[in-house]
Specification:
The chain has one domain. By secondary structure, it is mostly helical. It is globular, with a radius of gyration of 15 Å. The model has no long low-confidence stretch (mean pLDDT 89). Helices cover 68% and strands 0% of the residues.
Length: 149
Amino acid sequence: MTQNEFNPDKLLEEGRWEEALKCWAHSLPANRLGSQLVALLHEAVPTSLHPLLSEMNQQFSQYDNARRWRIFEQAQSQDLNSPTGALALSLFWANGSMSPDDLPPVYPEPQLSSRMLECALVMLAVELGETPVEGARHLIQRCLTKEAS
């Protein structure tokens, strides 16, 4: 399913907001979705998190292992149980080993990054609306609007 084919309204009307978010997430390349979420988070989080979001945006555009580790370290010093933290962890798990360079590589399960990206979506949707359905609708609409402009 591509974004042009994605229509969340039916799922949202049925209260199936998590499924709508999951379908939307799968309709986009992870890098594009990640960049959209970074832009949205940039508007919603304290300015102290903006340097982390800038690094995340760069990482979604072009992979750099040193930057990937900086993102992980910055996110650990913040709150991994937040949309920003979950997105950072998803980005960290997307490529490369989870172990430092001086140890044998340990790679995450292939689906772990996409699952954490979905967690970030769920957390953000819950924060954006009075109900999760409203939040999911708001999140999807804002990202679709950003992409169209």
